[in-house]
Structure formats: structure tokens, C-alpha cells
Amino acid sequence: MEPEKLSRKPLWRRLLRWVMISAAVVVALGILAWVIVDYAATRKLRKELDRVATAGEPLTFKQISESAGVPEPSGSAGRYYSAALELLVDKSVSELLDELNRQARGQGEPKPDAALSGRIEEALRVNEETLRLADRAAGLPTGGLDAELQYGMRACMNRLGRIRALSRLLSLRSRYLAVMGRGDEAGRSVMAALKAAGSLDQEQVLIVYLVRLALISMVCSDVQFVVEQSLPSPSVLMEWQKALEELELGLNLEKVVRAERVYTLGVTTRVMPKDMRAFLAEGNGNVTMEVQWPPTPLLRYAVALYLRNLARVADAVRQPWPDVWESVRVIEQEKPGFMQGGLMPPMTRAVGPTGAGVAKCRCVRIALMIESYQREKGNLPQTLQELVPQFGQEIPADPFTGRDLLYRVQPEGFVVYSVFEDGRDDGGEIQKKENNREKDCGLAFRLSGRK
After folding, report:
1. Coil, strand or helix at 36
2. What's the rounded Cα separation, in Å, for the pair 172 and 222?
3. Helix H segments across 268-422?
4. Are residues 372 and 234 in contact, defined by beta-carbon separation less than 8 angstroms?
5. Angle of the 128-138 helix axis to the 183-199 helix axis, nearest 10
6. pLDDT tens, 291-336?
7. Dihedral of alpha carbons 15, 17, 21, 24, sign
8. What does the buried/exposed string (b/e) look like for 413-434 if buried means 16 or more CB atoms within 10 Å of the residue's CB?
9. Quick one: which H or E segment has residue 291?
């Protein structure tokens, strides 16, 4: 009896023993699963990194700068733009610009009233040194307007805000000179704005690129305003043509994809393979962040998947227009798999605005040809083909269709436009929406009553 009693343990002790054994097994299996998943995710991530490196593409912003070539300090406009941004006084510039546009395009006298003129001249006087530095930068052969992404996203956003403010100041000066009948001075001011927009070519991550598109849209509107309100000389029109061609060539989505890849590697440096971390941290400056969630293996897998999707977008944007538009639309319309829905690069949403930017540059170039035609012939052309070859070698194509951009004569002038994303001709209804759908994209020029 005694041995039998000793061999039997209380039920709670037996249950506790099995619970502890089960917990140990679960923990061991969890650790094993973690190691396996981490190994697989690291291997997948390294495969993507090796693919990028084998293709000779950059992994850091330092490599991007080296491949682009660092301009000599004496020939770079960057230092002048930086000094201009430091001195800029942005107070009331946006308000003055809106008021000037309202008065100039109203039904009365195109010149601003005395009160508005005084306020504009005071704003320009306060920013006299800023404008002088921007003009000096515009006269140099290289760009280099730095977005300061190397100091972190917060510094970058502040810098971009200042750059947009400088663009508004240049726009205010250009438009004011135009309504005062000083066409050539306005034309030179527009050239400074064109050069500033083209100089924002460093570290072109998506947010920087979108700001650049906004600057291009603004300067195209400046050209439209100056042509409507004054008569710049033929030499100014030719300078604009050349600058707009260069600006259009700078809208390179492949460069943006590369910068987005580098930025992704920068902000996820802590989950990269150990032998890559020091290299990425050194080459990307302060473009890093603490990563705490999701767990490292899942984040590594997510980064690898994101890089793979980014590679697909890169292949699509290497194509010419309009093929790039169709290819990206195919990617967007695909049904995403597990985890992929939230890991599709936002680059796909930049293709439409890029096409609009290209279209606007081309529309303005055609409008300048039409302006030259009207000055010589005394009337507007009935078709764009009348401009070739005397006023242009060819008619630029609509980036969304590959066919010629469209043109219509209107009672007060003309409109040059693209059919935009839906591919449908809405008769030149610019920047209007119907059922939440963008209509045509372009510029409508009013030539009646200009100086």
C-alpha cells in the first residue's frame, strides 16, 4: 500500500506539470518559427538588395550624388538659392498674388489699384536681396536646389515650404511687371522661376518630386499670365521655349523611383542585414527612424516585397509616353495578394500628375509658337499644322494618347490642351470636374485687352 500511495501525485500537480511542458514546447516552437521566418525574410531582402546592386543602381543618396556628378561650388546655383531662402520674407505674398490675379483678370482696368500696387512694391522691396540672389542663381549653368532630405523629413518639409514660398514671390514679381506693361522684365522674372523649378533636382523622393510638379504648374501659369497681359520680345519667347524643353526633360520618373528606393532603405536601415547597416547609415545621413513594430521578420519581409513592387514600377516608368501611363494602370488594376495591397509604392499615383506636367509644358510651348504666328500673320492659326515648320519643327504629342495635342480658337483667344487621364476630348474644358472626374488639362489664353 505504501509504494502505491507514494507513486500517485495530486491532480493539480500533474496538470501543472503538463502545462509547463506544453508552454515550453510552444515557446521553443515559437522561437524556432521566429528564427526560420527571420532567416527567410532576411534572405528575401538580401536577394532584392543584390538584384539592385547587380543592376548598378544606387543604394544610398551618396551614390546618387556621385553618379549625378557634384557641381563645382563656383558653378552651382545651390548656395545662392539657400541664401535666398534664408532671407525670404513670405508675409502676405500669397494674399497679394491672389488679389493681383483677381484684379488683372477682372472686367475693369487690368492694372492693380494704387493700394494694391503699394503693397506689392513694398513686398518686393522687402525681398529685394532674396530676388537678387534668385536671379543670380538662375544665371548659373547648374541647379542644385537642395531639399535637405539628408537632415530628416521634418527639415525637408520645412525646406519645401520655403521653396514654394520663393516660387510664389517670383510669380508675384513676374505678374506685377506684366500688368505694368514691362513685358521683357516680366519675361526675365519668369525665366528665374523656370530655372528655380528645374533646379529642384536633388534627392527626388516622391514628396520632393510632387512639389517640383507644383512649381512647374505655377510657372506655366506665369507664362500664360505674362503673355495675356503684355508683349514680351521674340528673344524672351525663345528663351522660354528652351527652358520649358529642359524642364520637361527633367520630369524623369525613373530617377524618382531610385530615390524612393534609397529613402526606403534609409528609413528601414535597422532591419537590414547586419553587414549592410553601416554602409546604408553612412550613405543616407539622417534619413533613419526607429522601427519597433511590426516585428523585425515581418518588417523585413514587407520591405523586400515593397522593393519588388518598386522594381515593377521602375520597369513601367522606363517606357516612353503614353506606354508608361498604360503600364502603370495595369499594375494599379491588378488584384493585390496577401500583404501587397498596402505595399504598392505610391509612385503609381505620381504618373498622372507627371503626365499633366509634361502636357502643360508642351501646351505652353505650342502657345508660344501660336503667339509668334499671330505677331507675324496678324491672326490665329486655324490648325496647329500651320505652325510647322516655320514656328516649330513638330507639334508635341499628348503624353496620354501619343497623338498631337489639341487646339481650339475661342472668342477671346485660344486653348491648347491634353485629353488627360480618361483619354476623352471634353472640348478644352480646363481643370473642371464632372462626377469627380478631371476633364481636359492645358491652358486657355485670353489675348484681348493686353498691353
Report:
1. helix
2. 9
3. 274-284, 296-317, 323-333, 351-377
4. yes
5. 70
6. 445 567 888 888 888 888 888 888 888 898 889 888 888 877 775 5
7. positive
8. bbbbbbbbbeeebbebebeeee
9. none
